[in-house]
Amino acid sequence: FMSFNNAFILFFLGLLIMRLLNDFQRDKGKNKKAKTFQTICLGLIFILYSSSIRSVGWIFRHFEKAQERFTVDVGIFSGQIHFLIFFLNIALSVTVLILAFLMAKRHLKARQLFFYFLPVLALSEVFSFYRGWLSVEDGLELHPGLIFLIAFVIYGGITTAILLIYNSKFMKDFFSFTTTEPREEKTNGHADT
Protein backbone atom coordinates (compact mmCIF):
# COMPACT_ATOMS: atom_id res chain seq x y z
CA PHE A 1 0.00 0.00 0.00
CA MET A 2 1.36 3.39 -1.00
CA SER A 3 1.23 6.50 1.16
CA PHE A 4 -0.16 9.74 -0.24
CA ASN A 5 3.29 11.30 -0.01
CA ASN A 6 4.85 8.52 -2.11
CA ALA A 7 2.06 8.79 -4.68
CA PHE A 8 2.67 12.54 -4.83
CA ILE A 9 6.38 12.01 -5.46
CA LEU A 10 5.68 9.35 -8.11
CA PHE A 11 3.26 11.71 -9.87
CA PHE A 12 5.91 14.44 -10.12
CA LEU A 13 8.57 11.93 -11.15
CA GLY A 14 6.23 10.80 -13.92
CA LEU A 15 5.86 14.39 -15.13
CA LEU A 16 9.62 14.82 -15.05
CA ILE A 17 10.25 11.61 -16.99
CA MET A 18 7.75 12.60 -19.69
CA ARG A 19 9.39 16.01 -19.98
CA LEU A 20 12.87 14.48 -20.18
CA LEU A 21 11.87 11.92 -22.80
CA ASN A 22 10.30 14.66 -24.89
CA ASP A 23 13.46 16.76 -24.64
CA PHE A 24 15.76 13.83 -25.42
CA GLN A 25 14.09 13.50 -28.83
CA ARG A 26 15.86 16.73 -29.89
CA ASP A 27 19.17 14.92 -30.20
CA LYS A 28 18.14 11.30 -30.37
CA GLY A 29 21.12 8.95 -30.11
CA LYS A 30 23.50 11.70 -28.97
CA ASN A 31 24.63 13.01 -25.57
CA LYS A 32 23.90 9.70 -23.84
CA LYS A 33 26.19 10.45 -20.89
CA ALA A 34 24.61 13.85 -20.30
CA LYS A 35 21.10 12.42 -20.63
CA THR A 36 21.90 9.74 -18.07
CA PHE A 37 23.26 12.25 -15.56
CA GLN A 38 20.40 14.66 -16.28
CA THR A 39 17.89 11.91 -15.49
CA ILE A 40 19.68 10.80 -12.31
CA CYS A 41 20.27 14.30 -10.92
CA LEU A 42 16.82 15.68 -11.67
CA GLY A 43 15.22 12.43 -10.49
CA LEU A 44 17.07 12.75 -7.18
CA ILE A 45 15.99 16.39 -6.82
CA PHE A 46 12.37 15.40 -7.45
CA ILE A 47 12.53 12.48 -5.02
CA LEU A 48 14.02 14.67 -2.29
CA TYR A 49 11.86 17.76 -2.74
CA SER A 50 8.53 16.95 -4.45
CA SER A 51 6.80 16.65 -1.10
CA SER A 52 7.58 20.32 -0.43
CA ILE A 53 4.79 21.25 -2.84
CA ARG A 54 2.40 19.31 -0.65
CA SER A 55 3.87 21.09 2.39
CA VAL A 56 2.90 24.46 0.91
CA GLY A 57 -0.74 23.35 0.86
CA TRP A 58 -0.45 21.95 4.38
CA ILE A 59 0.90 25.27 5.67
CA PHE A 60 -2.01 27.21 4.21
CA ARG A 61 -4.54 24.79 5.69
CA HIS A 62 -2.77 24.30 9.05
CA PHE A 63 -0.74 27.42 9.73
CA GLU A 64 -1.40 27.23 13.48
CA LYS A 65 -0.13 23.64 13.62
CA ALA A 66 3.00 24.60 11.67
CA GLN A 67 3.58 27.52 13.99
CA GLU A 68 3.04 25.34 17.06
CA ARG A 69 5.35 22.64 15.76
CA PHE A 70 8.22 24.78 14.47
CA THR A 71 8.39 27.63 17.00
CA VAL A 72 9.61 25.32 19.75
CA ASP A 73 13.20 25.85 20.87
CA VAL A 74 15.28 22.84 19.82
CA GLY A 75 18.96 22.56 20.53
CA ILE A 76 20.98 25.75 20.29
CA PHE A 77 18.43 27.64 18.14
CA SER A 78 15.27 29.46 19.16
CA GLY A 79 11.87 28.44 17.87
CA GLN A 80 11.64 31.60 15.77
CA ILE A 81 14.81 30.67 13.90
CA HIS A 82 13.52 27.14 13.33
CA PHE A 83 10.22 28.56 12.03
CA LEU A 84 12.06 30.89 9.65
CA ILE A 85 14.29 28.05 8.42
CA PHE A 86 11.19 25.86 7.91
CA PHE A 87 9.61 28.47 5.60
CA LEU A 88 12.89 29.18 3.86
CA ASN A 89 13.40 25.47 3.27
CA ILE A 90 9.97 25.03 1.68
CA ALA A 91 10.35 28.15 -0.49
CA LEU A 92 13.80 27.03 -1.65
CA SER A 93 12.60 23.46 -2.25
CA VAL A 94 9.77 24.65 -4.48
CA THR A 95 12.13 27.06 -6.29
CA VAL A 96 14.69 24.30 -6.94
CA LEU A 97 11.90 22.00 -8.17
CA ILE A 98 10.71 24.65 -10.62
CA LEU A 99 14.27 25.20 -11.82
CA ALA A 100 14.78 21.43 -12.17
CA PHE A 101 11.57 21.16 -14.18
CA LEU A 102 12.83 23.90 -16.51
CA MET A 103 16.24 22.25 -16.70
CA ALA A 104 14.55 19.11 -18.02
CA LYS A 105 14.10 21.15 -21.22
CA ARG A 106 17.69 22.47 -21.04
CA HIS A 107 16.70 25.95 -19.97
CA LEU A 108 20.05 27.78 -19.61
CA LYS A 109 18.87 30.49 -17.19
CA ALA A 110 17.32 27.83 -14.92
CA ARG A 111 20.66 25.99 -14.87
CA GLN A 112 22.48 29.19 -13.92
CA LEU A 113 20.01 29.98 -11.12
CA PHE A 114 20.22 26.37 -9.93
CA PHE A 115 23.87 27.00 -9.01
CA TYR A 116 22.77 29.72 -6.57
CA PHE A 117 19.66 28.15 -5.08
CA LEU A 118 20.77 24.53 -4.55
CA PRO A 119 23.61 25.35 -2.10
CA VAL A 120 21.32 27.61 -0.04
CA LEU A 121 18.72 24.84 0.00
CA ALA A 122 21.40 22.38 1.14
CA LEU A 123 22.32 24.72 3.98
CA SER A 124 18.67 24.95 5.09
CA GLU A 125 18.53 21.15 4.94
CA VAL A 126 21.48 20.97 7.32
CA PHE A 127 19.49 22.95 9.89
CA SER A 128 16.37 20.86 9.26
CA PHE A 129 18.43 17.70 9.76
CA TYR A 130 19.76 19.11 13.04
CA ARG A 131 16.26 19.95 14.26
CA GLY A 132 14.92 16.57 13.16
CA TRP A 133 17.73 14.69 14.87
CA LEU A 134 17.19 16.48 18.18
CA SER A 135 13.39 16.19 17.95
CA VAL A 136 13.47 12.39 17.98
CA GLU A 137 12.83 11.43 21.59
CA ASP A 138 14.57 8.06 21.57
CA GLY A 139 17.28 9.11 19.14
CA LEU A 140 20.99 8.74 19.57
CA GLU A 141 22.35 11.64 21.62
CA LEU A 142 25.27 13.30 19.85
CA HIS A 143 27.11 16.58 20.25
CA PRO A 144 25.43 19.33 18.14
CA GLY A 145 28.67 19.83 16.21
CA LEU A 146 28.72 16.18 15.20
CA ILE A 147 25.08 16.36 14.07
CA PHE A 148 25.93 19.37 11.89
CA LEU A 149 28.97 17.54 10.52
CA ILE A 150 26.87 14.52 9.55
CA ALA A 151 24.33 16.79 7.84
CA PHE A 152 27.06 18.75 6.02
CA VAL A 153 28.61 15.54 4.74
CA ILE A 154 25.25 14.23 3.48
CA TYR A 155 23.76 17.40 1.98
CA GLY A 156 27.08 18.96 1.07
CA GLY A 157 28.15 15.78 -0.70
CA ILE A 158 24.94 15.46 -2.70
CA THR A 159 24.94 19.16 -3.60
CA THR A 160 28.62 19.21 -4.55
CA ALA A 161 28.24 16.14 -6.75
CA ILE A 162 25.21 17.58 -8.57
CA LEU A 163 26.85 20.97 -9.07
CA LEU A 164 30.09 19.39 -10.34
CA ILE A 165 28.09 17.34 -12.83
CA TYR A 166 26.15 20.37 -14.07
CA ASN A 167 29.36 22.40 -14.30
CA SER A 168 31.16 19.74 -16.38
CA LYS A 169 31.97 20.31 -20.04
CA PHE A 170 29.66 17.56 -21.27
CA MET A 171 26.71 19.08 -19.39
CA LYS A 172 27.53 22.59 -20.59
CA ASP A 173 27.59 21.25 -24.14
CA PHE A 174 24.35 19.37 -23.53
CA PHE A 175 22.58 22.51 -22.33
CA SER A 176 23.86 24.58 -25.23
CA PHE A 177 22.93 21.94 -27.83
CA THR A 178 20.78 23.19 -30.67
CA THR A 179 19.40 21.00 -33.36
CA THR A 180 21.35 21.00 -36.61
CA GLU A 181 18.25 20.42 -38.68
CA PRO A 182 17.09 23.57 -40.46
CA ARG A 183 13.90 25.09 -39.21
CA GLU A 184 11.13 25.71 -41.64
CA GLU A 185 9.75 29.19 -41.45
CA LYS A 186 6.90 30.20 -43.64
CA THR A 187 7.53 33.27 -45.71
CA ASN A 188 5.19 34.02 -48.57
CA GLY A 189 3.92 30.43 -48.46
CA HIS A 190 7.37 28.90 -48.99
CA ALA A 191 9.66 27.17 -46.56
CA ASP A 192 12.81 29.17 -45.94
CA THR A 193 15.93 27.09 -45.28
Helix percent band: over 70%
Distance between the termini: 55 Å
Report the mean per-residue pLDDT as an integer.
Answer: 87
- As a percent range, the share of strand residues is under 5%
Assembly status: single chain
> Count of helices?
8
Backbone structural class = mainly alpha
List the strand order in the largest sheet.
1-2
Structure characterization notes:
The protein has 193 residues and is mostly helical. It has eight helices and two strands, in the order H-H-H-H-H-H-H-H-E-E. Strands 1-2 form a two-stranded antiparallel sheet. It is globular, with a radius of gyration of 21 Å. Residues 180-189 have low confidence and may be disordered.
Q: What is the structure about, briefly put?
A:
The protein has 193 residues and is mainly alpha-helical. It has eight helices and two strands, in the order H-H-H-H-H-H-H-H-E-E.
Features:
single chain, mainly alpha, 2 strands, 193 residues, two-stranded antiparallel sheet
Indicate the topology.
Layout: H1 4-24, H2 32-49, H3 51-61, H4 63-70, H5 79-103, H6 108-135, H7 144-166, H8 169-175, E1 185-187, E2 190-192
Antiparallel strand pairs: 1-2
